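Let's do one together. I've listed all components of the complex below, 225 residues spread over two lines.
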Amino acid sequence: AQSVTQLGSHVSVSEGALVLLRCNYSSSVPPYLFWYVQYPNQGLQLLLKYTTGATLVKGINGFEAEFKKSETSFHLTKPSAHMSDAAEYFCAVSAGAQKLVFGQGTRLTINP
Amino acid sequence: NAGVMQNPRHLVRRRGQEARLRCSPMKGHSHVYWYRQLPEEGLKFMVYLQKENIIDESGMPKERFSAEFPKEGPSILRIQQVVRGDSAAYFCASSPTSDTEAFFGQGTRLTVV
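Okay, and this is what the predicted structure of the assembly comes out as:
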């Protein structure tokens, strides 16, 4: 069985500040890990994914995440927040590429 | 190459009516997944289909819900005798194979009144 916990349902940062969204997972098999972004009334867009190989994964819009097996974490970061980053972010895990198990989501607010 | 197309985008049904949600996968994609997002919650897996076959329906409610992906045409998620608790956003995703990234549609927002 797999599960995802996103710490913090709401995160607020100032424009230009570091963005850190936390995700911890549980998986009985080597996980595939994903971060998705959802803008209001839109579908999900893939930001980045980890399957195998390099543990630091770079995605779109300047986001990156690091897979830490010892901590069962896959936190999402961006060095400098932009107003357009305001959205809902979902971490997800799967045993393969399918049947994703999502976290509850973190709503990111950017303050001018 | 158009993305995953879902229609309608918004659907209002009275309690007891039927809701039909359609999903046209991306060209060349034969694997379709349906997820449900309840208000203020993450997405929950419902069902995984490949052309004409249900592969995994472990997330589907036992009653009133069904899904199909015929040889021709879109995938359909059907909800019979809708209740207020069915109000949610329903997302479809598709992929070309079982072990590649799935792309999501924009969702159908079902409101039961």
